Amino acid sequence: MKGYLSAKEAARKWNISVRWVNQYIQDGRVPGVERFGKSWAIPEDVVKPEKQKPGVKRAAQAAE
Q1: Could you give the CA distance from residue 64 to residue 45 in angstroms, rounded to a whole number?
Q2: How far apart are CA 19 and CA 16, in angstroms?
Q3: What is the DSSP secondary-structure string of 3-63?
Q4: How far apart are CA 20 and CA 18, in angstroms?
Q5: What is the pLDDT along the chain (64 residues), one digit of tens a residue?
Q6: How many other C-beta atoms can be found within 10 angstroms of the C-beta atom of residue 11?
Q7: pTM of the entire structure?
């Protein structure tokens, strides 16, 4: 699909595993993604999300 990358292509571009790409998507940290069947379409101009510091996610959940 023109203008989009698969999770595998994004992993190669960002130099991380496909599992990390999927984790970023599930955490809502990759804007503009779309689901097509069992695959993700990731806009090719999206930059790699920065890693969160350990405990940041847990601290945010504790505040809820």
Answers
A1: 33
A2: 8
A3: TEE-HHHHHHHHTS-HHHHHHHHHTT-STT-EEETTEEEEETTPPPPPPPPTTHHHHHHHT
A4: 5
A5: 688 999 999 999 999 999 999 999 999 999 999 998 999 999 999 988 887 767 666 555 555 5
A6: 19
A7: 0.74
